[in-house]
Amino acid sequence: MSQEKIETIIELRGIINQFGKQRIHDGVNLDIHRGEVLGLVGGSGSGKSVLVNTILGLNTPWAGSVHFQGLDIPKLSPKQMLEIQKSWGVLFQHGALFSGLTVSENIQLPMVEHSKISSRLMKELADIKLKLVGLPIDAGAKFPSELSGGMIKRASLARALALDPLILFLDEPTAGLDPISAAAFDDLILFLKETLNLTVVIITHDLDSLVRICDRIAVLIDKNIIVGTMGELMKNKHPWIQDYFHGPRMRAAQDTNKREAL
Amino acid sequence: MAKTSKFIELQPDNNLLNVGIMGDWIMENASVLESLLTDLDIEIEQYDSIRMHCNGLENIDTSGAWMLYQKFSQYEERGLRASFEGFKDVHFKFIKTIQTLDKQPCPECMRDRSFYGAMERLGGLTVKGVSHLGEALGFYGRIAETFFRSIRSPSHMRISSIIRHVQEAGINALPIVAMMAFLIAIVLAYQGATQLQKFGAEIFTINLTAISVLREMGVLLTAILVAGRSGSSFAAEIGVMKLNDEVDALKTLGIDPFEVLVLPRIIALVIALPLMAFLANMFGLAGGALMSITVLDIPLNRYFDQILGAVSMNDFLVGMIKAPIFAFIIASVGTFRGMQVTGSAESVGRLTTIAVVQSIFLVILADAFFSILFAKMGI
User: Fold this and answer.
1) Which ipTM was obtained for this model?
2) Alpha-carbon distance A40 to A205, whole Å?
3) Residue A93 domain-assigned?
4) Which of A16-25, A208-217, B207-216 has maximum average pLDDT?
5) How far is CA B343 from the centre of its chain?
6) A256 and A185 inside one domain
7) B93: nearest CA in chain A?
8) Which of A111, A145, A164 is the last residue of a domain?
9) What is d(CA B351, CA B334) in angstroms, rounded to the nearest whole number?
């Protein structure tokens, strides 16, 4: 990514989100570059999910514009919106797998809805996606309620990948996973990013993930956003950022990462 | 014969088929690509080797890569000499990934469809049925146990919870129950009047309406309405709590879920349903009165005289005695099904439906039983 020209895939300008009298975002500007992993952090209630929902068109901002590859999202017709929706995959915090469908059917659902390929090919592609996210093939026949937390996350990721998206949104993918599964999930995201040329936006509180996989980090703070690499943010003087990036847990996370790099 | 399209270009060279792979091999074009590759299967039969030239390939994703890879391995299996060339690094990465993934072992998970398989499923169903019966018995046992424990130490009786459910299941439903009974009485009276007129016995319409409302219709229709209204909400409320692990949370906090969730609902409905049935009876009689004044031209005082002559206290009691029993059936089935919820949101929906259908069925079954019983007793 370093030598290539930086291409902005998503552009947020002057986003204001307000619920009642409470203003959550006050003029947020954010560029998401093609091929990067962007971490989105912020305290509870700082509006991380609201911001992602704004990009996804699930929430119409009070003011401001969202451009996806040059298209103004809130102003698109439903048909144009559908075209865009096919090019992003979303992993919700609790998986949001459809409980009445098997894992394989969950993965095939976007294909059934949006493409005309044969059911045999759909089944094969679903199997490939299962393998891609590191699930055994027989997990495809299971229902979401029969899976463990880590498997649900993986299955849900496989569904997000069903239509081979350009960009992947992950809402706290490693929350609630044990450290080993969480590290494996980080590896998986890196692997997918490399092999599928994905752009990844990841909301996370997992400092290990931040250190290991994020190219840049966006901090939602004081109703606005500060973006930078880990190194840049470490130097930032804002007290919350100081607390966040210099806390004991952060130091531990960086130590592990250094040890791994050695 | 050379065929061309946006994605594939065929150039035969004696026994070798050169296939130019071009354009975007991505999900969006997957259905076109799939049919193109099927056509290629027929074409390939005349050749003994195939070479895929991928210089013209612009974009590829896992679906395109899978289709190419799969064709490739299929042809190799058939004994054709197959080769790829001209891949860009970015594109080859996909094929490599797919290849490594495909080589991973895949366990067979076929369902056994033989005779033994069928026997096994039948056995499974039987075991499930029997254990289900055991579960139901256990449930009623727990209700009885919790009930007697609560009676011995009234602090275990959740009065506020009972009152809340009386309010929700009973008092909030009064308008609809009253309306329904009123309308049913009108329907009955209308039908009765048209038939009895033929014998000049219109006055007996009053007997017909009053007795059927008091003995059967009032309580039965109230029970069916409550089964649909409260039976379902009991099952769904408890089911969702079960899904959220709230029931387990209660247990770990040393609180008996039967004491706080099941018993208050049952007691509340046993209190509320007789009151609702009573109201239904009164509105049924009112509906009858309206009909007798407007259609039969019988004044109100004669209507009451006729009723007092026709209806005995027993008719009223026969109806009312059924109310608490129906209430117990509805509430226990609803809470039982709610407690059975496991796993997914779908199971809440399924068990709620079962709760309603089953409680209505059991109420009607019990009503039939009572009819026979009272007939034998001569009441």
Assistant:
1) 0.72
2) 9
3) no
4) B207-216
5) 14
6) yes
7) A195
8) A164
9) 9
Question: For the structural domain made of B8-103, what CATH number should be given?
Answer: 3.30.750.24
> A131, A148, A164 — which closes off a domain?
A164
Asked if the Cβ–Cβ distance from B107 to A118 is below 8 Å, we say no
Question: Closest Cα of chain B to A154: distance in Å?
Answer: 16
Q: Report the pLDDT averaged over residues A143-162.
A: 86
**Coil, helix or strand for A142?**
coil
Interface of B with A in 79-138 (CB under 8 A): 90, 93-94, 97-98, 101-102, 104, 106-107, 109
pLDDT in tens, B81-116: 888 777 777 777 777 777 777 766 554 444 556 788
A177 plus A56 within the same structural domain: yes
pLDDT value of position B283? 96
Number of helices followed by number of strands (H, E) in chain A: 10, 10
Residues on chain B touching A141 (C-beta within 8 angstroms): 109
Start-end ranges of CATH 3.30.750.24 in chain B?
8-103
For residue range B117-152, list pLDDT tens digits in order: 888 889 999 998 999 899 999 999 999 999 998 888
Pairing of strands A8-19, A22-33: antiparallel
pLDDT recorded at residue A4: 58
Count Cβ neighbours within 10 Å for each residue of A78-112 and write b for 16 or more, e otherwise.
Answer: eeebeebbbbbbbbbeebbbbbebbbbbbbbbbbe
